[in-house]
Amino acid sequence: MKTKKTPSPTSKKSAIIFGLAGLTVLGLAAAMFLAPYIRSVLDTRITQSEATLQISMSGWSPAVINAKTGQTVAITMINLDHKFHTDGGGWHNFAVPDFGVNEPVAPKQTRTFTFTPTRAGEYVFYCDICCGGKNNPFMRGKLIVT
Ligand SMILES: [Cu+2]
Q1: What is the tens place of the pLDDT at every residue in 77-92?
Q2: Dihedral sign of CA atoms 100, 106, 108, 109 in order
């Protein structure tokens, strides 16, 4: 007569551990397989092909721009100051000497211009018309090119 063999608690535990190990391996393999895709999606999310910046005597908003090497960026610059400012007459500019960019915007005007960052790295953009120019921390921003 055969007796029905019930799995011992130890073998149940082994099966669970084995199953979890298998799922972990599959999960890691899937993560490795999908990593380039996930990275490219994140890259496009943080890379801007256009940015709208407000500038006034109180500084840039936002003060960080993300861009991609070789990809043209359209900057729309909104100058919030009026022409009666004694410092610079209310003019501001967007300068990134590393890429030969120097675009002025008249008081209370909005202007869109483009440039193409050609090298990866972190660069300073600044206004050097007013308020101490690029030496004033409020007149500086960061351009991150990946
Ligand atoms: Cu300025």
Answers
A1: 999 999 998 878 999 9
A2: negative
